[in-house]
C-alpha cells in the first residue's frame, strides 16, 4: 500500500513524453489500468493528481507507443492469416459482421458482455452491451477518437468474460495487458488499496481496419462548415480519401484532408489490427459485405456466426497497408530531420532486439547449432557492424550481438542479417539457443555428435515461448564442459565399460587413464566400481588389448538445473536415444507451462521445487508414455 505523500509538487508522469510529443495513439489503455483512478481521458490521457511512483507503473508498461511487444505476443498467439468475406443478418456497418459475431458469442455464453463504441451525437463513448438489442444501437462506424473506460466498468459490475471491439492501437495495448507479466517481468501494479485494478478476462479481441482517427471537435466544425449538424447524421463511411456523410437519405462527401488527423496516427503502421483474434473491415469485399481476417483459434469461432466465402481482394488491403507504412515512414523521417522525439516502439516487433542503457539498441543473433559459423558469416557480421557503427560482442552461449545500433537502423540490420541466414532472437521468455561443446567429431573426449543433437533440438524448440527463459546445454561427455547439470535441461554423452575377462591381462592401462579412480587391478583382471564410474569411456579406447567393452551407452539427461543468483543441479536420468531426449524436453516444457504461476519470475527449478520434483517428473513421464 502506498504511503501518503507529504510533499506538494508539480505532478510528474513518465508517459508525459509520449503524450506531449504526439507519439500517443490515444488508445486509452493507460487510463483503464491505473489502480488509483488518477488518469482520465479528455481528448488525451491526463494525470489528475500526484502519482507516488511518477508514472513508473502499468500505465507506462502497457502503452503500445512505448513498446509494441509484438514479437513475444505473436510467439504466444501463433497468429495465422485466413481471409474471408461475409455478412450478418443484423443491420450494421459494411455487412454487420461485428454485430453478428458478438450476438453469437453472447448467445452461446462465450462472453458475458462486449466492450464496444457507442455514441452521443456521434461522439464515441465506451459502452458495455449484454444483449442483442443493445448491439444494434452501436453498430455504425465512428471515426473520431474512442477509449476503453467500459472495460474497467465491466470489472466493477462483476463481469468475468468479455469481447472487445477496438482499433489496431487499442488491440496492441490490450494484448500487452493480456501478456503483461511476460512483457513487464512482474505482476500487475497494486494501488493504494493494495489491490490491482479489477477488469474481466478478455476472451476475444475483434480488430477494426483503420487508416486514421479524427479529432471530434474539429470534425464537428468541418461538418458545420458544410451545413451539416452532427445530430442529423445517420451514417459515416470512408472511401477513396473522402468522408461520406449520410443525412436524410442524402450522401455528402468531404475531403478527409480538411479534417484534423490525430497526430499519433501518423506514427502508426498497422491498418488491419494484426494482433486481433479476427480483424474486420469493408476493404477487399463486395459492397454490403465485411472482410474478415481470422488469425487465432478463438477467431475461428466467427465461422459459427456467419456464412463466409473466399475471394477477398487482397491487393486492396495491401494498398492501404502500404499507405499507412508510407505515412509512418514519412513522419519518422520528418521527426528525424527536426530532431523530434521518437520512442522506437516498433523495436520489439523484432526478435532479439533490446534497448541498451545509453538509449541505443543491441541485436542478438541466435547462435548457430553448437556455435559453428562459416568465415563468410563472420565477415558479413563484421561488415554490417562496420556499416552501422556497431560493436560486436560474442556471448557465452556462442551468439553474436551487435551493440550501439541506432533506432532508425533496427529494421535494416535485422533484414540484412536474415538475408544471410542469420536469425535474430534468443532473448526473453523462450527457449534460448542451445549451448554445446565441439563433440566427438572435434574433441578426443567426445562421445556424441553434439552439433547434430543441437540441430534437432533447434528445429523442434527454437524460440518456443516459455514462462521464463529456458536454457539447454549439450556436453559430449561426462566432463560436462557446457555445465549441462545447471541448465533447465542438460544432456551429456555417456559410455559405461565392462571387462572382457578373456582378453584382459591386468596390464593396468585402463586404471592409469581413469580420472575418477573407478578401476582397480586385482591379479590379471581389471574391475570397475560403478558407484564411482561416470561413463566417460576413456578406458575403452586406452586398452591395448580391446578388453574394455561397452556395457551401456546413451545420454545422461538433467532436468531442472539453474545458474545465476542460485545454483541448482538438475535431477538426472539416463536415456538411450535422441528421440527420448526430444520427448523429455517437450513434456518438461508442457508441465512447466502448466504449473508455472509467476511468468518471468519462476525458473523451471523453482516450479519443480514448489510442486515437488517427484510429482513434476511423474507427470513428464506420463506425458511421454501417452
Automatic annotation (TrEMBL):
Listed transmembrane segments: none
Gene3D superfamilies assigned: 3.10.450.750, 3.30.70.20, Sulfite Reductase Hemoprotein, domain 1
Protein's UniProt keywords contain Heme: yes
Example of a GO MF term: 4 iron, 4 sulfur cluster binding
Pfam family, one: NIR_SIR_ferr
PROSITE patterns the record matches: 4FE4S_FER_1 (PS00198), 4FE4S_FER_2 (PS51379)
Keyword DNA damage: no
4Fe-4S ferredoxin-type domain ranges (all copies): 15-44, 495-524, 525-553
Keywords: 4Fe-4S, Heme, Iron, Iron-sulfur, Metal-binding, Oxidoreductase
PANTHER family: 7-HYDROXYMETHYL CHLOROPHYLL A REDUCTASE, CHLOROPLASTIC
The name this protein goes by in its record: 4Fe-4S ferredoxin-type domain-containing protein
Organism: Methanobacterium bryantii
Amino acid at each position: 500500500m502506498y504511503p501518503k505523500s507529504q510533499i506538494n509538487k508539480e505532478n510528474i508522469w513518465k508517459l508525459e513524453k509520449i503524450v506531449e510529443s504526439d507519439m500517443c495513439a490515444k488508445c486509452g489503455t493507460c487510463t483503464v489500468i491505473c489502480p488509483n483512478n488518477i488518469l482520465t481521458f479528455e481528448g488525451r490521457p491526463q494525470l489528475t493528481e500526484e502519482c507516488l511512483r511518477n508514472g513508473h507503473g502499468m500505465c507506462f508498461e502497457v502503452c503500445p507507443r512505448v513498446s509494441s511487444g509484438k514479437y513475444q505476443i505473436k510467439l504466444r498467439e501463433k497468429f495465422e492469416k485466413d481471409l474471408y468475406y461475409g455478412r450478418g443478418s443484423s443491420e450494421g456497418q459494411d455487412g454487420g459482421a461485428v454485430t453478428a459475431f458478438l450476438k453469437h458469442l453472447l448467445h452461446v455464453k462465450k462472453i458475458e458482455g462486449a466492450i464496444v463504441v457507442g455514441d452521443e451525437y456521434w461522439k464515441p463513448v465506451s459502452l458495455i452491451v449484454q444483449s442483442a438489442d443493445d448491439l444494434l444501437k452501436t453498430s455504425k462506424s465512428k471515426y473520431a477518437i474512442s477509449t476503453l473506460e467500459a472495460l474497467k466498468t465491466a470489472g466493477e459490475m462483476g463481469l468475468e468474460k468479455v469481447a472487445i471491439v477496438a482499433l489496431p492501437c487499442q488491440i496492441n495495448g490490450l494484448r500487452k495487458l493480456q501478456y503483461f507479466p511476460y512483457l513487464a517481468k512482474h505482476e500487475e501494479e497494486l494501488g493504494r488499496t493494495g489491490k490491482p485494478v479489477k477488469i474481466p478476462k478478455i476472451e476475444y479481441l475483434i480488430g477494426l481496419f483503420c487508416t486514421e482517427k479524427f479529432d471530434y471537435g474539429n470534425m464537428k466544425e468541418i461538418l458545420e462548415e458544410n451545413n451539416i449538424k452532427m445530430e442529423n447524421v445517420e451514417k459515416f463511411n470512408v472511401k477513396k480519401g473522402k468522408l461520406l456523410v449520410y443525412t436524410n437519405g442524402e450522401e455528402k462527401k468531404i475531403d478527409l484532408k480538411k479534417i484534423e488527423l490525430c497526430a499519433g496516427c501518423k506514427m502508426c503502421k498497422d491498418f488491419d489490427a494484426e494482433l486481433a483474434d479476427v480483424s474486420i473491415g469493408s476493404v477487399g469485399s463486395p459492397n454490403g459485405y465485411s472482410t474478415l481476417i481470422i488469425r487465432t483459434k478463438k477467431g475461428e469461432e466467427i465461422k459459427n456466426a456467419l456464412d463466409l466465402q473466399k475471394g477477398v481482394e487482397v491487393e486492396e488491403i495491401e494498398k492501404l497497408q502500404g499507405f499507412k507504412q508510407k505515412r509512418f515512414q514519412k513522419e519518422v523521417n520528418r521527426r528525424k530531420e527536426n530532431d523530434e522525439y521518437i520512442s522506437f516502439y516498433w523495436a520489439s516487433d523484432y526478435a532479439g532486439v533490446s534497448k541498451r542503457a545509453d538509449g541505443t539498441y543491441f541485436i542478438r543473433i541466435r547462435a548457430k547449432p553448437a556455435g559453428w559459423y562459416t568465415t563468410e558469416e563472420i565477415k558479413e557480421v563484421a561488415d554490417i557492424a562496420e556499416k552501422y557503427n556497431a560493436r560486436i560482442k560474442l556471448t557465452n552461449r556462442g551468439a553474436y550481438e551487435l551493440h550501439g545500433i541506432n533506432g532508425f537502423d533496427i529494421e535494416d540490420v535485422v533484414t540484412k542479417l536474415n538475408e544471410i541466414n542469420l536469425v535474430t532472437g534468443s532473448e526473453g521468455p523462450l527457449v534460448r539457443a542451445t549451448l554445446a561443446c565441439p563433440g566427438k567429431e572435434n574433441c578426443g573426449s567426445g562421445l556424441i555428435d553434439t552439433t547434430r543433437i543441437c540441430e534437432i533440438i533447434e528445429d523442434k524448440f527454437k524460440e518456443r515461448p516459455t514462462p521464463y527463459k529456458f536454457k539447454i546445454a549439450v556436453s559430449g561427455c561426462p566432463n560436462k564442459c557446457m555445465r549441462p547439470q545447471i541448465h533447465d535441461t542438460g544432456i551429456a554423452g555417456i559410455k559405461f565399460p565392462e571387462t572382457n575377462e578373456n582378453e584382459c591381462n591386468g596390464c593396468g592401462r585402463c586404471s592409469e587413464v581413469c580420472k575418477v579412480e573407478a578401476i582397480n587391478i586385482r591379479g590379471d583382471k581389471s574391475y570397475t566400481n560403478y558407484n564411482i564410474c561416470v561413463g566417460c569411456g576413456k578406458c575403452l579406447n586406452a586398452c591395448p588389448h580391446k578388453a574394455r567393452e561397452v556395457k551401456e551407452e546413451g545420454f545422461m539427461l538433467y532436468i531442472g538445473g539453474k545458474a545465476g543468483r542460485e545454483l541448482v543441479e538438475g535431477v538426472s536420468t539416463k536415456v538411450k536415444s535422441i528421440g527420448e531426449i526430444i520427448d523429455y524436453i517437450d513434456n518438461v516444457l508442457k508441465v512447466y507451462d502448466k504449473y508455472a504461476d509467476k511468468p518471468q519470475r519462476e525458473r523451471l527449478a523453482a516450479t519443480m521445487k514448489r510442486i515437488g520434483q517427484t510429482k513434476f517428473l511423474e507427470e513428464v513421464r506420463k506425458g511421454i508414455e501417452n
